Amino acid sequence: MRVWLVGAVVAFVFACDEPPPPVAPPPEPAPEVVEVTPPPAPEPPPELAFRAGGSREQLPRVVQWLPEARRCGRHGRRRYCNGPRRAPEPAGESGALAERLGLGTHRAAAELIRAEPRPEWIAAARELLPPLQYPMSWPIDGGRFGRGIQRRGRKVTHRGIDVTADVGTPVRAVADALVGYADNTVDGYGNLLVLLHADGQVSAYAHLDAIHVHAGQVVDAGQLVARAGNTGLSRGPHLHFEWREEGDLADPMRRFEETHVPRWMRPLLARLGN
Description:
Elements: H1 2-17, H2 46-49, E1 72-75, E2 78-81, H3 92-101, H4 106-112, H5 119-128, E3 145-147, E4 150-152, E5 155-158, E6 161-164, E7 170-172, E8 177-183, E9 191-196, E10 202-208, E11 210-211, E12 218-219, E13 224-227, E14 238-245, E15 248-249, H6 266-272
Antiparallel strand pairs: 1-2, 3-6, 4-5, 6-14, 7-13, 8-9, 8-12, 9-10, 10-14, 11-13, 14-15
C-alpha cells in the first residue's frame, strides 16, 4: 500500500513538471491592399499618328491603291492621258484628317497649285510640322536641272522646273510637309503629288509613275514619297516641280543648294537674293 502511494505521488510530481501544450500564435493580419493607378502613358506627338511610313532609303508601302481611272484630253494637236492612276487609298487617322480638312480632292489640288492655301490648312501644317528650313532637299538624286519657269509676255507658259529622271526614279520631299493631294485628276499633270509646308509654302511633283503617300499624312524632308514617270502632258520621263510662296508662283532654284544650280543661273539668283 505504501509503495503504491509513493508511486502515485511520483507520477503526480512528474506530471506537474510537463510543459503545457504549445499555444498557436495569433494569425498575422492580412496585408493591406493598396490600389495604385499607374500614371497615364504620355501621348505621342500628334504628328506620329499621321506619319507616313518609309524613310530616306525606302518608299512607303502601299496597302491599297485607288481604283483605276485614266483621264485623257488634248492640248492643241497633242493627245495625253493622266494615267494610269497610281496613288494610295487614304486610310486611318491621316485619311480622316484629310477628309475633315477637305484635302485630297480635286478642288484642294486646284487651290493649292493656283492660290494661297486655306487658313485651316496652314494651321494644321504648323501644328504638325517644324518650321521650314532652307536650303531644301533636291527632289531627285542625280537629277539635273533641265528647264525653268518660262513666260511669254504676261502669260506663264511653264510653271515650274523640270528635273531629269528615268521612269521609276525615287522622288524625295523637298521639306517636311503635310500631304495635301495625291491623285491624277488635274489635267496635264498626270499622277500629281502636292505637299503643304509649315508656313504655307506649297511644292508640287507632276508626271509621276506612282505616288506612295496619301492626303493627310506627314512626310519628312528628304523622305522618298513617289517615283518619277511620264504621265500626263509630258514629252518624256522627268519630274516637273512647282513651288509657291504666299500663294504666288516662285522660282525654287534659289531655295536649293548651289551645287544643284547651273553655273549660268547662279549670278541671276544672286541678284534676286531671298
